[in-house]
């Protein structure tokens, strides 16, 4: 049956079903996997660096007129703890998806179903990292400028190194959330190209 | 089916009001007619849940922005200027504008609300448009998710500081003085969180992605 039908199919409607056949198993679907892998590597680097910089931000200062030392640590603020947890989750997730991405490149391209799962988890991760960035940045801003209305004094004139670390890791988290946005866009675009 | 588990509630909806129902019946019929031309394997009519979700997200972000923006309280606080003398009672206002995090929160929610109205118009009005329009809406949806979540994170951490204070750097809590203000802020944060979860949910339920999911077996196997 199939062998007799096939030549008729090719000769009669050759121009029409050609793009449809191109999406079949013979032609690999569009998936932009190398860009995906590169972005995921960048994500891994930025989240790992962010966590390390935040965790190593401990600073002990001698308050000058008094013989007292005071320590500034990230786990004195719940916002920074949330930041570390969120970025660690994003880092583990990036390791997982780097493995998956390498597997996809070497073995087989992902199905649309799997791609959709990746897109949705990517979007959730983007939300997580963005909220961590916001939380950390708002506390850091109070530390930098203080808030005269409620009498919160600034602390960054005392703890220079601590504040530098916090600022760097917040900037890295911002980069990570932008990378996650790009990842979502890339996967959405490849789904779009497949179903077009 | 691929349904975001925590928001399963929103897909099972009460019966819609008659006027809206009329609109949807018309839309879905039109869609089915159109689907004959483009050979969609499993045509999805216009979903009522999507429409409702967008309206709810718009309402939630609007309410959050308004409640936060209008939160204001003036309390008389005893201030001791010279130790030993009687304290001076000074009226101290608490406003949203005193905190840059709250300002960011209000702006993010206002932008998300405006975008929600815009996308509602586009999804209803531009049904015959190219699918690139759906791609653009999807992209903007993700950006809104990130914007809303970052605004929520910023305002929540500021609110937590006001609620608990931070003894390590000597930041006193203020919520024991400004109770009403803090209650308003908390309500606004919760409403905005619900709105941003709706956005994330909508992102997952989007028509474009839905279409890709329904046709997944046709294309990849």
Report what the structure shows.
The complex is a heterodimer of chains A (about 200) and B (about 220). Chain A is mainly alpha-helical and about 200 residues long. Helices cover about 70% and strands about 5% of the residues of chain A. Chain A contains six helices and two strands. In chain A, strands 1-2 form a two-stranded antiparallel sheet. In chain A, a hairpin with a 4-residue loop joins strand 1 and strand 2. In chain A, helix 4 runs antiparallel to helix 5. Chain A is elongated, with a radius of gyration of 25 Å. The N terminus of chain A is likely disordered. Chain B is mostly helical and about 220 residues long. Helices cover about 65% and strands about 5% of the residues of chain B. In chain B, strands 1-2 form a two-stranded antiparallel sheet. In chain B, strand 1 and strand 2 form a beta hairpin. The longest helix of chain B has about 35 residues. Chains A and B meet through helix 4, helix 5 and helix 6 of A and helix 3, helix 4, helix 5, helix 6 and helix 7 of B.
Secondary-structure map with pairings?
The complex is a heterodimer of chains A (196) and B (221).
Chain A: H1 2-12, H2 18-22, H3 33-55, E1 59-63, E2 68-72, H4 78-106, H5 112-145, H6 160-195
Antiparallel strand pairs in A: 1-2
Chain B: H1 18-38, H2 48-70, E1 72-79, E2 88-95, H3 100-125, H4 131-164, H5 179-204, H6 207-214, H7 216-220
Antiparallel strand pairs in B: 1-2
Helix pairs in contact in B: 2-3, 2-5, 3-4, 4-5
């Amino acid at each position: 049956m199939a062998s007799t039908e096939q030549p008729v199919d090719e000769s009669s409607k050759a121009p029409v079903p050609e793009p449809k056949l191109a999406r079949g198993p013979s032609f690999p679907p569009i998936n932009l996997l190398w860009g995906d892998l590169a972005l995921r590597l960048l994500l891994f680097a930025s989240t790992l660096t962010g966590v390390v910089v935040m965790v190593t931000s401990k600073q002990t200062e001698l308050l000058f007129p008094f013989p007292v030392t005071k320590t500034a640590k990230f786990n004195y603020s719940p916002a920074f703890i949330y930041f570390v947890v969120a970025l660690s989750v994003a880092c583990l997730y990036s390791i997982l998806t780097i493995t998956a991405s390498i597997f996809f490149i070497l073995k087989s391209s992902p199905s649309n179903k799997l791609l959709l799962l990746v897109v949705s988890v990517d979007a959730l991760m983007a939300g997580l990292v963005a909220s961590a960035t916001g939380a950390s940045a708002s506390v850091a801003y109070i530390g930098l400028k203080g808030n005269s209305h409620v009498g919160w004094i600034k602390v960054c004139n005392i703890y220079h190194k601590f504040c530098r670390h916090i600022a760097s890791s917040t900037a890295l988290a911002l980069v990570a959330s932008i990378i996650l946005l790009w990842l979502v866009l890339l996967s959405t675009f490849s789904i779009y190209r497949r179903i077009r | 089916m691929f349904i975001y588990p925590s928001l399963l509630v929103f897909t099972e909806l009460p019966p819609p009001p008659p006027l809206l129902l009329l609109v949807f019946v018309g839309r879905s019929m039109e869609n089915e007619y159109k689907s004959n031309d483009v050979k969609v394997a499993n045509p999805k009519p216009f979903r009522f849940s999507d429409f409702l979700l967008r309206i709810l997200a718009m309402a939630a972000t609007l309410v959050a922005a308004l409640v936060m923006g209008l939160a204001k309280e003036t309390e008389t606080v005893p201030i001791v200027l010279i130790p030993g003398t009687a304290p001076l009672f000074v009226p101290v206002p608490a406003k949203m504008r005193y905190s840059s995090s709250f300002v960011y929160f209000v702006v993010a929610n206002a932008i998300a609300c405006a975008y929600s109205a815009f996308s509602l118009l586009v999804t209803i009005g531009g049904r015959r448009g190219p699918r690139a329009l759906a791609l653009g809406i999807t992209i903007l949806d993700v950006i809104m998710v990130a914007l809303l979540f970052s605004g929520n994170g910023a305002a929540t951490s500021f609110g937590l500081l006001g609620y608990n204070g931070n003894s390590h750097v000597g930041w006193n809590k203020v919520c024991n003085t400004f109770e009403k203000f803090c209650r308003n802020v908390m309500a606004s944060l919760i409403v905005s969180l619900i709105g941003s979860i709706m956005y994330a949910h909508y992102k997952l339920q989007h028509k474009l992605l839905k279409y890709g999911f329904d046709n997944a077996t046709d294309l990849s196997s």
